[in-house]
Design brief:
mainly alpha; 9 helices; elongated
Length: 198
């Protein structure tokens, strides 16, 4: 078949993500992903350096699928608290739309922390989460005339860390009401990081 390298990698990664979501990351091997992708083992093997390369590609794909920023409107309305909570709830809805992908992301983190060669995966995940938070915070500030009283990167690290913990708790208890209450508290704290325009 005349697939390009990029197409071959894409097919195998899609299959690997599906395997991880359906059965867990421990079932993701290059051979299994190739089989699900309808590709020969030799063809798949030519597309990836090794298993770690496949897991790196899966990590990037899962991170991208978890929160497509374009799906989260950044314009709020009313007071800071009302507008920020509205955006936070929309963000959370997108973030938690696919519980299986959140679980895969968590499994990647644990696997990467246990294997030195894969540690860059979890470092990359953290960097991506902070960059995403910074993008949302910056967009929200621009859309709503908000000025942060400290570097937005510091606020983003705080928000990403908070959401990481909240997501883990939600994976355990699936308590949407508790998550909403925690997001409300997050917004109240964020309001203390806003410069008073007066």
């Amino acid at each position: 078949m005349g697939w390009s390298l990029e197409e071959r990698r894409g097919r195998v990664v899609d299959a690997a993500v599906q395997l991880a979501a359906d059965r867990g990351l421990e079932h993701v091997t290059l051979r299994a992903a190739a089989d699900v992708a309808g590709m020969s083992w030799d063809t798949a093997r030519e597309s990836f350096y090794d298993h770690a390369d496949l897991l790196r590609a899966v990590s990037v794909e899962v991170t991208g699928r978890n929160v497509p920023v374009e799906a989260v409107g950044l314009a709020g309305g009313g007071t800071f608290t009302e507008g920020a909570l509205d955006v936070a709830l929309r963000f959370w809805e997108v973030l938690t739309a696919h519980r299986d992908l959140q679980l895969v992301s968590y499994e990647i983190s644990v696997t990467a922390l246990r294997r030195t060669a894969l540690r860059p995966l979890v470092v990359g995940q953290q960097a991506d989460q902070r960059a995403l938070a910074e993008q949302v915070l910056t967009g929200f500030a621009e859309e709503n005339g908000v000025v942060w009283d400290r570097p937005v990167a510091d606020v983003a690290r705080f928000v990403a860390t908070f959401l990481d913990g909240l997501t883990t708790a939600w994976l355990v208890d699936a308590d949407e009401q508790a998550a909403t209450e925690q997001l409300t508290l997050l917004v109240q704290v964020l309001e203390t990081f806003v410069e008073d325009p007066a």
